[in-house]
Amino acid sequence: MNGWIGELFHPDNVDRTVDQLVEHQQVGRSSGQRDKVRERLTAAETKLHRLQAAIEAGAEPVALVDSLNRAQAEKAAAEAELANMTEPSALDRAEIYAMVDSLGDVGAALGGASVEKLARLYRDVRLDMWFDYEKEAVDATTSLRVNSAGVRGRSYTLTTTLRLS
User: Fold this and answer.
1) Mind listing the pLDDT tens digit for each residue in 56-66?
2) If 0-12 CB within 10 Å is exposed, 13-18 middle and 19+ buried, where does residue 147 land?
3) What is the average per-residue pLDDT within 100-128?
4) What's this model's pTM, rounded to 2 decimal places?
5) Distance (Å, rounded) from C-alpha 165 to C-alpha 149?
6) Contacts for 105-109: CB closer than 8 Å, 24+ residues apart
7) Where are the chain's structural domains?
8) Which candidate, 134, 135, 144, 147, places its Cα nearest to that of 5?
9) 99, 158 in Cβ contact below 8 A?
C-alpha cells in the first residue's frame, strides 16, 4: 500500500494524480443535507396537496386550517433553507496542486518514518481499502482533505480509487 501511495504522490506522477482528482472530484458537498431538505419540501407539498384534495372532496375547510398552516410553514421553511444552501464549486488544478503540496514529501514520510508520521500521512490521505470477493481484488481509495483558509476557506475532500488485483 505504501508503494501505491508513494507512486500516486511521487513528483513524476503528481500531474497524473492531479488529473484523476480533477476528473473524479467529490467535493465535500452537503448533498446529503440538501437531499434531506428536499425530502422535507416534498413531504410538505404532498401534505398540502392531500389537504387541498380533502377540501375539494367536501371536508370542512375550517377543520383543516391548522394542518394547512403547518404544512405551508414547513414548505416555506424548506424552500428558504434550500435557497440559502450554497453548492461548493469544484476545485481547479492549482488548488488541487496546493492540496497535494500541503502533504509534503510523501516518499520521505513513507520511507523509514515513525509510526506517528505514517499515521498522520494515512489520516491526511484518508486511506480506505476493501476486498472485492468476486474479483479477488482490493479497492483502495485515497481522499485528500483540506480545511484551510488558503483553499477558498472551506473543507474539501477529493477522492481517487485504484483496484489492486
Assistant:
1) 999 999 999 99
2) exposed
3) 77
4) 0.48
5) 39
6) 106/5, 106/6, 106/8, 106/9, 106/10, 107/6, 107/9, 107/10
7) 2-28+88-164, 31-84
8) 144
9) yes
